[in-house]
Amino acid sequence: MLQASSQALRLSDADLPRSAAGHLVIIGGNEDKVHDKLVLRRFVELTARREPKIVVLTAASNYHEEISAVYDRAFGDLGVTQRKALAIHSREDANHPAVVEDILSADGIFMTGGDQRRLLALIGGTAAYTAMHRAFIERGSCVAGTSAGASAMSAHMIAEGQGDIHPEKGVVSFAVGLGFLQRAVVDQHFSERRRLGRLMAVVAQNPSLLGIGIDEDTALVVERGSGFEVIGDGAVTLVDGRQMSSNFLDIGERELIELINVRLHLLPAGASYVHRAGTCSDAQGGREINPTLHEIVDILSSNETVS
Amino acid sequence: MLQASSQALRLSDADLPRSAAGHLVIIGGNEDKVHDKLVLRRFVELTARREPKIVVLTAASNYHEEISAVYDRAFGDLGVTQRKALAIHSREDANHPAVVEDILSADGIFMTGGDQRRLLALIGGTAAYTAMHRAFIERGSCVAGTSAGASAMSAHMIAEGQGDIHPEKGVVSFAVGLGFLQRAVVDQHFSERRRLGRLMAVVAQNPSLLGIGIDEDTALVVERGSGFEVIGDGAVTLVDGRQMSSNFLDIGERELIELINVRLHLLPAGASYVHRAGTCSDAQGGREINPTLHEIVDILSSNETVS
């Protein structure tokens, strides 16, 4: 499907340099937009262009004008001159050739917060959606999303769900996401909204998915085929349920779930892991990392994209 | 030491029936004292006596009169006729023969909340302390503690420490506890006060200790040599860092700790695991439990007491 649509766009090879590896910048919401702008600054740097073109997708939100103004100022402050907020209010907008051109030619694509269901309802399966994947895979563009835009990154997306202290059965509903991460599910505002229980409930129901909880003003930065790092102010929590056992099938709705042997990784900003020649190491110190993280590096950086 | 002190107490064998296995009732604080009294009721049942004698130790608190009145009413409501609150305001009180006699003859010993450091400062190493261990080991008495009384249960005790969202280095200080659990450390008011970060910080610094986080109105009930169960309203969270790696030694004070491969078990009320003939099973359903829990059952129920 991706292949077919991309042919229809009739871009020349010159427009699509294939060398660069794309980055995902998955932000837990509430990133600083006024002061140090640590996370937004890194996003701009990861476009790896002296004069990057950045497009902002506000489709998750009902407030295009207000939100695009905030990011226009933030990216302007960061020295980005080519910046454009795309107003996508309908699926027709998301299939419009001008929108597609803007996405395909962008070095950085930034999805704002709002409601991830709205975002997917507007762009899921459209030409804009295909263009985002092409830009990421073929041009090595940097794709970022904050809050709802972060949740939308994974193929299986948390649509909504009460975040209680403990994991309860049946409190989280899923929807189809953008598919930049195939074997993981993203949750945001993670520590601030006490969402470990909710994320463990997701993993209890779907032990094959790696749960990723991202704090506010914090981002998980994935380099395609290489590794990942954590930047910003907080931490990223990974919940790995592949060796877990639970009583999920035996209990009723809203009951607390018994979870045994959940593997949890807490990665503060500064943590960085890269894949090199069959082994993994800490990107800063070069020290060998815990073998359990090898698979995690694979899960996050392989980016089997939609097929 | 325990042996020597116990001889000095000159109790006859008849006073110390050795058949019963002692129970620990480790309560996360704020247990219901007025309505269903689920946790306190179980404590009374676990004395396994038709007419149990229950003593209440308020030594953790500055408010002996107020607190003992609350528990006197609660245990009275539960049909306990032989109940006594022990006023221990000094180490002399804790070495007083009458206090020792009351503890040694009690079927249930209940430690209230307050400050665990105060509790240990008053009774640590005293004759009252020795009597508690003798009653537990030799008579099979039931020993309960709530809040500070729960923290005091373990040999290594959390003295104080800020409970932030994430584990930070150097925020938790330790003290010597009562030693009813040798290879674990207890934290209470666990979910309500968001203490997972603090407990992970403890485990990061001491990976050989099993972290036990107990919610309010919830108890971990350990049967010596047999197994454990969770009762009440919430859950018990176990943090096992024995296969963990962390950057604890490389970072400064108050920095977030990177933790990789923490094994986490979440056990809601109703969970119950018993040790039988070399295997472990779920006490209700009889189903085999995850092998990771076998060791946990050993750690909790072996109760190598102070030597």
Automatic annotation (TrEMBL), chains A, B:
It catalyses: [L-4-(L-arginin-2-N-yl)aspartate](n) + H2O = [L-4-(L-arginin-2-N-yl)aspartate](n-1) + L-4-(L-arginin-2-N-yl)aspartate. The active site is at S147, H189, E216. It is an enzyme of class 3 (hydrolase). One of its GO terms (biological process) is proteolysis. Its EC number is 3.4.15.6. GO terms for molecular function: peptidyl-dipeptidase activity; serine-type peptidase activity. It comes from the Bacteria. Keywords: Hydrolase, Protease, Serine protease. Exopeptidase that catalyzes the hydrolytic cleavage of multi-L-arginyl-poly-L-aspartic acid (cyanophycin; a water-insoluble reserve polymer) into aspartate-arginine dipeptides. Belongs to the peptidase S51 family. This is Cyanophycinase. It comes from Caldimonas brevitalea.
